[in-house]
Design a protein that fits this description.
The radius of gyration is 16 Å and the shape is globular. Strand 8 and strand 9 form a beta hairpin. The model has no long low-confidence stretch (mean pLDDT 97). By secondary structure, it is α/β, with parallel strands linked by helices. 35% of the residues lie in helices and 25% in strands. The chain contains six helices and nine strands. The protein has a seven-stranded mixed beta sheet. A two-stranded antiparallel ribbon has the order 8-9. The structure holds 5-O-phosphono-beta-D-ribofuranosylamine. 5-O-phosphono-beta-D-ribofuranosylamine binds next to helix 1, strand 5 and helix 6.
Length: 203
Amino acid sequence: MKNLAILLSGRGSNFEAIAKSVSSGRIPDARIAVVISNKPKAGGIETARRLGLNALVIPSKGKGREEHDREVVTALQTREVDLVCLAGYMRLLSPWFVSQFPHRILNIHPSLLPAFPGLEAQEQALAYGVKVTGCTVHFVDKELDHGPIIVQKTVPVLDSDNERALAARILEQEHIAYSEAIGIVLEGRYEIAGRRLTQTRTT
Ligand code: GRF
């Protein structure tokens, strides 16, 4: 049984999709050991409590990055977490945090990386005028929105789109992509050469 941790700061729809995949067995042999928010009012924390999961608020306000990260990492280690999933966690991890979980931290980003890293990726895609965008689940390394890519899903940009409509269609794909990526990683069905991840088969 693998222990997952979810780190979030907001509404937590990706977390909820992951929780459904765990309870339905789509992500097998795993449990959500802890849900951590740096924001006391995050909707995702409410959801975690409603689902009867271990929900922790570790406020980041007024703390240095590494000081906060140390509290979070202690909470993760106490629960023997195998894989950390960032799901709308609006904080950069310190290099020290990343080094504590090599190839064991995932993030989801609402664009086809390396296009449009950083904030408001959907707005950036619309403003740039791309015809196709999507989402990316990747390993977290020491650079923002940068580590090896595990799963990407494409979403067409429609002429009628505004940021909200586009973000909603990307979000549907995020919910599918994240569980897929977690399955690949937990089952070890991958190899990485350089930054290129390829899937391997297990029998
Ligand atoms: C998603 O768009 C995700 O890609 C980005 O933050 C948003 C979080 O949404 N990193 P939610 O809290 O999972 O609903």
